[in-house]
Design brief:
about 80% helix, Serine Threonine Protein Phosphatase 5, Tetratricopeptide repeat, single chain, about 375 residues, 21 helices
Length: about 375
């Protein structure tokens, strides 16, 4: 990616008015940001897209690339505007229309509208079946609680990919592992994460999940070493939290405190600079380490940004951390009516009812039964 980006800069220097080359540069910068976790790359991609628009003829421009970058930065309203503009282009072929439908589907998923997301994903699949369209359909199955169906679609997407980019194959294995991790099957998750690592070693998203599983398996020294290496490369506060958790598990809170403080400072800086991007990542920190009122504040903002089942589940946990059990129970009752039925959301419902000593309530009983059927290793005792 470094070599590709340098080459694109050379091309732009030779032909500075080629907005299409600048668009390609923006996509490459965003891709490198995804692989490294570097926000500077996304900022550069943002600037490159703006430069491309400044050069593009009136009525044209990199609208689809603009939409993808806005989506990556969780600027969902702007992404929808860009898709609207992309759809107004005079010539749209089936692959482009499929991309537009597919990204609209992902935005609908973020908004919690599973039916619309499914409809749009099906439209994209019918126009241009690709690894991406299979993956988008898999995400919807997953959120409906159909883990077997989601797994089949992820494997279908993987079988469709015949390119040379190992990050694509690594991403599919990563998703399969995350599904198993959500269901608490740590051994199965680790197999997928190792498969992903074999495809693309050094990918921090894969390595952090390997470290997470090692911690859950009691392999704390190995987990700690890997987390420290990832922190050196990314400076990501999520992994500072993980290191703090390992020290607390080892009975050494004094060692954990500097990591918690460093993570808090990093999260507050992210929330100030890129609030939409930071909400979902910072939330777990404040739920676990406090202050709990800050966790509630962020969880409410996160739910406003993406009113879906997982965001509501995290609001429940924030309320529980803040000892607002009645509010958590009210959110659990709302979540119970949602089609979003994952191991994560069912666990949140169970946690809310357990905190209120109402585990014999019909909603709690039904949620536990569904959770135990869906994720036997996560079945509450």
């Amino acid at each position: 990616m470094d070599a590709s980006i340098l080459n694109l800069h050379d091309q732009i220097q030779a032909k500075p008015k080629s907005w299409i080359t600048i668009e390609i540069l923006a996509s490459a910068q965003a891709t490198r940001g995804r692989l490294t976790g570097g926000l500077a790359d996304y900022a550069n991609a943002d600037a490159s897209v703006a430069s491309a628009f400044a050069l593009a003829p009136l009525g044209s421009g990199p609208w689809l690339t603009r939409a993808h970058i806005d989506f990556s930065l969780h600027r969902f309203a702007l992404a929808l505007d860009a898709l609207d503009a992309a759809e107004q282009r005079v010539i749209i072929d089936d692959p482009m229309r499929a991309s537009i439908h597919g990204l609209r589907g992902e935005l609908s998923l973020q908004a919690g509208d599973l039916d619309l997301a499914s409809e749009l994903a099906d439209m994209a699949e019918a126009l241009d079946p690709t690894p991406t369209t299979a993956a988008r359909s898999a995400q919807i199955r997953w959120r409906r609680g159909d883990y077997a169906g989601a797994e089949a679609l992820y494997l279908e997407g993987l079988s469709r990919y015949h390119g040379l980019d190992p990050s694509v194959r690594a991403w599919f294995h990563l998703q399969l592992g995350i599904m198993e991790l959500e269901r608490a099957d740590h051994d199965a998750a680790l197999v997928h994460f190792m498969d992903a690592n074999a495809e693309l070693s050094g990918y921090y998203l894969v390595e952090e999940h390997i470290a997470e599983v090692w911690a859950l398996q009691g392999r704390h020294a190995e987990s700690l070493g890997l987390y420290l290496d990832i922190i050196d490369r990314t400076g990501n506060p999520e992994f500072m939290d993980a290191v703090a958790g390992l020290h607390i598990a080892a009975g050494d809170p004094a060692e954990a405190n500097p990591w918690i403080e460093a993570a808090t400072q990093a999260y507050e800086a992210q929330l100030a600079a890129h609030p939409e991007l930071a909400y979902g990542h910072a939330l777990g920190h404040y739920i676990e380490f406090g202050p709990s009122a800050r966790a509630v504040e962020i969880a409410q903002a996160n739910l406003a940004l993406r009113p879906n089942g997982d965001a509501r589940a995290e609001l429940i946990r924030a309320y529980l951390a803040d000892h607002r059990n009645a509010d958590a129970l009210a959110e659990a009752q709302t979540l119970d009516t949602d089609a979003w039925r994952t191991a994560n959301t069912l666990s949140a419902i169970h946690e809310a009812y357990a905190a209120s000593d109402q585990l014999d309530a019909p909603v709690a009983v039904a949620a536990r039964e569904q959770l135990c059927a869906m994720a036997p290793l996560q079945c509450p005792e």
